[in-house]
Design a protein that fits this description.
By secondary structure, the protein is an alpha+beta fold. It contains 6 helices and 4 strands, in the order H-H-H-E-H-E-E-H-E-H. It folds into 2 domains: 49 residues, Winged helix-like DNA-binding domain superfamily/Winged helix DNA-binding domain (Arc Repressor Mutant, subunit A, Orthogonal Bundle); 79 residues, Lrp/AsnC effector binding domain/regulation of amino acid metabolism (RAM) domain (Alpha-Beta Plaits). The chain starts with a helix and ends in a 13-residue tail after the last helix.
Length: 164
């Protein structure tokens, strides 16, 4: 990813409903350049699906919990597929330390969270779990500052292509 990619992503972030023509004009680049770069970012996995922007509370799942999962050391690798099959598991990270995985889970209520944790501990090769309930989100995932830093590495926008 380079500075122009970062500027494109910042522009899309600022106005996600803008047309590609408006974005390209605002950035001073050709529309084909914009499309090609966005397509490359998607194909490389740098751009994730738009549903990641959705607030789980809008789906009735305002309770957020982080669940540390300890797996069997010999067969635990088989558990990840079953854990991913639980729709309320919205993130999963392999970790170091006492736990092998850290899951971010969303639930409707404490009772619903209890149901979900029951599903998780029932997965074969899950040895134990530890749950921490989030009281509130102090800071959501943010990447904008990193994009701004990258975009600043090339402060001069490219020259506009000639109009035909």
């Amino acid at each position: 990813m380079d500075a122009l990619d970062a500027r494109i992503l910042l522009a899309v972030d600022d106005d996600p409903d803008a047309s590609s023509l408006a974005l390209a004009r605002g950035l001073g680049i050709a529309r084909n350049t914009l499309h090609a770069r966005l397509q490359r970012l998607r194909s490389q996995g740098a751009l994730r699906e738009p549903s990641r922007r959705l607030d789980p509370a809008a789906l009735g799942r305002a309770l957020v919990a982080f669940i540390s999962v300890e797996l069997s050391q010999t067969t635990g690798h088989r558990a990840t597929g079953a854990l991913m099959a639980v729709p309320e598991v919205v993130e999963m990270h392999a970790t170091t330390g006492d736990a092998d995985l850290l899951l971010k889970v969303v639930a409707r209520s404490p009772e619903d969270l209890h149901r979900i944790t029951g599903l998780l501990v029932a997965v074969p090769d899950v040895v134990r779990t530890s749950t921490t309930v989030a009281l509130r989100e102090e800071m959501p995932l943010r990447l904008r500052a990193l994009l701004e830093e990258l975009a600043a590495q090339d402060p001069a926008p490219p020259s506009r292509p000639p109009r035909t």
